[in-house]
Amino acid sequence: LYNSFHLSDYLGRCRETIDTALVDLFDQVDQNRRIVAAMRYAVMGNGKRLRPILCFAAAEAVNGSSGDAILPAIALELIHTYSLIHDDLPAMDNDSLRRGNPTCHIAFDEATAILAGDALLTLAFEIITDPAFSAPAPEMRLGAVRIIAQAAGYQGMVEGQMRDILAEGRRLSIDALKSSHALKTGALIRAAVETGATLAGGSPHQVKQLRQYADDIGLAFQVTDDILNVEGDPDRMGKAVGTDADRQKNTYPALLGLDASKTLANTLVSHALSSLDIFDHSADPLRAIATYIIERKR
Ligand code: IPE
Ligand code: IPE
Ligand code: MG
Ligand code: MG
What we know:
Layout: H1 7-27, H2 34-43, H3 50-61, H4 70-87, E1 97-98, E2 101-102, H5 104-107, H6 110-128, H7 138-152, H8 157-166, H9 174-199, H10 204-231, H11 234-237, H12 243-246, H13 252-256, H14 258-275, H15 284-295
Antiparallel strand pairs: 1-2
The site of one 3-methylbut-3-enyl trihydrogen diphosphate has 8 residues, from helix 10.
């Protein structure tokens, strides 16, 4: 479809940028400290880096560059990794494999995993406000801090995780499931797109369209995560499958079945693409990422 655009090259380049930034970050601190080792262990696993990639692609859609979005990109990957560490804890989903490795609480211990999550969350805000970077301007960063804090906290990801846990073993309505997904997964994805676009100077209209795009792909992303939990290959995914059913989680496949879930994911991506109609080729990365989100095998 986007024949002039090679998604796998693009994803590879973005991942290299973000992984280099993350390695540099951890190289600056004492590796021998247990807390640093646990933080690094979780971050350096084989993550897809989707949120940073979306941050870069959103900056490019408004004719900025990935450099405009590097600070929120790193911050969001740190926050996302913290959310995974805590999501896997025995008190939450109790998983033992993540990003192809034993989960943080298995490789270290529960107390260390809890603290590593706490430390990654706070480090995110330390990075985004780091005066060593000369750009973006402080007022722009303040806006990004607020978007990310709201998306991560009790009105966003944390609320979604709370609803996910509260709903174990009882059946949610489709609308309730949709809002739970929009919070636990959609909020950080939207923050990635929104901060990338705003820091690169996107207009209010552009940012509005990009938010709609993000909300659709955010939901499609979680629907696909739930589909992969039913029929994915655990070796490729680097995490266990069948766990949602074991824990009586509310998921689209559980409520609607696999076929209807796949149809929904497709519809969401079509809708996401239509939100990008106001953009020219600058939004091709975002277009290709939308399709990748539902076709991915990991
Ligand atoms: C998994 O996120 C958790 C969800 C929010 C669905 P990813 O699938 O982006 O995980 P990594 O970062 O690639 O490990
Ligand atoms: C994870 O959702 C959402 C967050 C970590 C915020 P899931 O529990 O469905 O994700 P996986 O399947 O463990 O990656
Ligand atoms: Mg969970
Ligand atoms: Mg989980």
